[in-house]
Amino acid sequence: MEERNLGEMPEENVASATEDSSPSPQPAVSTAASDAPARKEPVIRFVNVDDEEDGDKQHVIDLLAMYEESMQEIAEGQIVRGTILKVGENEVLVDVGFKSEGVISLAEFPEPVNITVGEELDVYLERLENQDGLVVLSKQRADFLKVWSQIKDAYDAGEVVEGTVQRRIKGGLVVDLFGVEAFLPGSQVALRQVPNLDDLIGDVFPFKIIKLNKRRRNIVVSRRVVLEEERNKKKASLIQELERGQIREGQVKNITDFGAFVDLGGIDGLLHITDMSWGRIGHPSEVVSIGETIQVKVLEFDKERERISLGLKQMTPYPWENVEDRYPVNEKVDGRVVSITDYGAFIELEKGIEGLIHVSEMSWTKHIRHPSKILTVGDQIVAMVLRVDRENEKISLGLKQTEPDPWLTIDERYPVGSRFTGKVRNLTNFGAFVELEEGIDGLVHISDMSWTKRIKHANEVVKKGEDVEVMVLNIDKENRRISLGLKQVQNDPWETLAHQLPEGTAVEGVVTKVVERGVVVNIGDDLEGFVPLNQVPEEMTRNNNAGLQPDAKLQLRVVRLDPQNRRIVLSVKAFFEGEEKSEVSEYRSRSTGSGRISLADMVDLSQAKNATLEESESMEPEEAQTDKSEDTPKAAPAAPEEVETTDEDGNGESGDSA
User: Fold this and answer.
1) Which residue has the higher pLDDT, 632 or 572?
2) How many CA atoms lie within 13 A of 224 on its CB side?
3) What average pLDDT does the segment 511-516 reach?
4) From its phi and psi, is residue 551 left (phi > 0), alpha (psi between -120 and 50) or beta?
5) pLDDT: which is higher, 247 or 643
6) In this predicted structure, what is the pLDDT of residue 357?
7) Is pLDDT at 52 greater than 80 in this prediction?
């Protein structure tokens, strides 16, 4: 037989050899774990032993028995009992009764600071030996396997289990469930999104297990499922007892721009912004906040569609009841400006009661384009009640009525015929507005700006911002109008003009405007006269009135003066005819001294006049010359001719020449 060392012999060979050579029973060397399958105990057989050493066999057997007793028979995949020997930086050293110690990762302990050396615990044997020769253990897997049956039963039965939120991780929370870790996704924490998950750490909640994976040791729980089941139960019960007009307590769950959703205990109702307050609010958050518990009234309930309309303002009395007694007409009231629009301002008189001050009721005198020029939101003011409409929930207020109306005494401050100095505030086509005092303007019409000029626009006489002296002509209290005059502060030149410019007076004028039937000329001192076209020589009207252009100077004679209609009619022809008469008279005086003229004198005068005309005609263009007879003497005109006159507006009239 080949000699072999006992230590090198495989265990199964040792057992086989023992069974063949020794029929007597031998003591067991090792025992298996309680949950391991039964094994046949090996029988030890000695080989290569001398006879003299035969007496030491019993001693060897005793040593082997002691060795087997000091070790447990363990295998991978089992849960064994171990004792903590040492706590390292990243690992915990555990004695499990094997030939080498085991290690557990420190991360598997939820509270490493509470680990105590010598403490016993159950561990799961993952591998008998790692690269360092140590047994690889797991505490978490041992905990999981110990409660697996309990977790599996709760999952199969759909039972509700309690767990403690331990910490927050990516995507959700870690929950301690029966001593093992379970994952709670963020979407399964509550019925609505939780703003801060860290606030739930340390709290105990009921959960339902919604997913299991034994191989991966993965447990997923949900709190939302539990809450939904509770809500559905409450909802079914609430629908049966909910009625219109009931007062219910609810919790504000969400706020939008148009209202708030209130949880009545299983079903949500809408609290619209219009039903939150009798007064004006800008946003629902001004009245309620998320999580707040409030008392509301059920306004409408649609059981089939499960829609509920709630009211909060209905919990307080209707403020418009007997409003006429609290705010009588023509009484002054205090209020606060809460809103401003283009047409006025809303004034809060009390919670739920608002009045409107129209822009036309803000000032007696000022022309207000927008209410913001007078009032701002938040102002505390005093107003007067003008009208109350309880049915339509409207109150009309006035701001100007709290002060005296300055137009009631306007005639006392500005009597007709008095003179005042004011500032030109605005110019228009028909006149100028002159400010007499703040908010009090009077109109100077263009017809009252000059005695002599025809004004087309007010800027021909005055400028904006200029101080002018005016006279009060008329006051209309009802329509709040004052008529002023600018020319009335000066003397009327037409009263003395008949003496200054009698008919036949020769004047010089400058053309200022050409109209269809004549020209307007300025004869000095702001006096204007009109020259009809039939009173202008033909030579001047040729070539599109070449001789009548603006700024042209004309020698004229007054043919008609009408002070009543303030009109002066002038003539160019009459001027030249008047010149001829004066020459004849001068010649008479110079020749006879008696004023009588002989036939010879008339012939001499005619020859002299013709020479003058020929000289003047030689200076005119050829086409402008007229036929004249050398044989016919020129003397004074035989008789006055009828003159057709027309003003600058084309209105014709007739009169006699000078």
Assistant:
1) 572
2) 14
3) 84
4) left
5) 247
6) 94
7) no
Q: Which two tokens stand for residue 90?
A: 């990243």
Spatial distance between the Cα atoms of 106 and 112, rounded to a whole number of angstroms: 7
Task: Give strand ranges (E) for 323-439.
Answer: 332-340, 344-350, 353-358, 380-389, 394-398, 419-427, 431-437
The helix/strand/coil state of 167 is strand
* DSSP E strands, 604-651: 642-646
User: What pLDDT digit, counting tens, does each position of 471-502 carry?
Assistant: 999 999 888 889 999 888 887 777 667 677 77
Separation of alpha carbons 528 and 531, rounded Å: 10
**Residue type at 72?**
Q
Strand 394-398, strand 353-358: pairing: parallel
Tell me which amino acid residue 559 is: V
Is residue 461 over pLDDT 50?
Answer: yes
Residue type, 89: E
pLDDT of residue 346: 93
Bridge partner residues of 335 (DSSP): 381
Amino acid identity at 483 = S
For 380-435, the pLDDT digits (tens) are 999 999 999 988 889 999 998 888 888 888 888 889 989 989 999 989 888 999 98
Closest by alpha carbon to 226, among 157, 162, 151? 162
At 602, is the secondary structure helix, strand, or coil?
Answer: helix
Query: For 591-616, what is the mean pLDDT?
Result: 41
Residues of the chain with pLDDT > 70, as a percent, come to: 75
**What does each C-alpha distance from 59 to 24, 56, 64, 75 come to in angstroms?**
17, 5, 9, 29
- Sort 61 into a burial class: Cβ within 10 Å, 0-12 / 13-18 / 19+: middle
Q: What are phi and psi of 615, to 5 degrees?
A: -65, -40
User: What are the E-state strand segments in 226-292?
Assistant: 247-255, 259-263, 268-272
Write the CB contacts of 191 (distance below 8 Å, at least 6 apart in sequence): 224, 227, 228, 231
Question: What is the Cα gyration radius of the chain?
Answer: 62
Residue appearing with tokens 């017809």 = 447
- CA–CA gap between residue 486 and residue 329 (Å, rounded): 44
Q: Which two tokens stand for residue 242?
A: 């909910």
Report the candidate in 98, 101, 70, 72 with the shortest Cα–Cα distance to residue 87. Answer: 101
Percent of the chain residues topping a pLDDT of 90: 20
3-state helix, strand, coil in the chain (%, to 5): 30, 35, 40
Q: Cα(448)–Cα(468) distance, rounded to whole angstroms?
A: 13
**Using CA atoms, how far apart are residues 141 and 124, in angstroms rounded to an integer?**
6
Average pLDDT, the chain: 76
Sign of CA dihedral 324, 329, 331, 337: positive
Q: Decide if 276 contacts 326 (C-beta within 8 A).
A: no
Residue 652 has a pLDDT of 44
pLDDT band at residue 318 using 50, 70 and 90 as cut-offs: confident
Cα–Cα dist 503/284, whole Å: 88
Report CA torsion sign: 320, 321, 327, 333. negative
Nearest alpha carbon to residue 379 among 330, 326, 339, 331: 339
Query: Which residues, 6 or more positions from 213, have their beta carbon under 8 angstroms from its beta carbon?
Result: 219
Hey, CA dihedral for 119, 124, 128, 133, is it positive or negative? negative
Least confident among 214-218, 452-456, 527-531, 578-582? 578-582
Q: Cβ contacts of residue 291 below 8 Å, gap of 6+?
A: 251, 252
- Residue 546, helix vs strand vs coil: helix
Least confident of 32-41, 199-208, 294-303, 517-526: 32-41
Quote the CA–CA distance of 60 and 72 in Å, as a whole number.
20
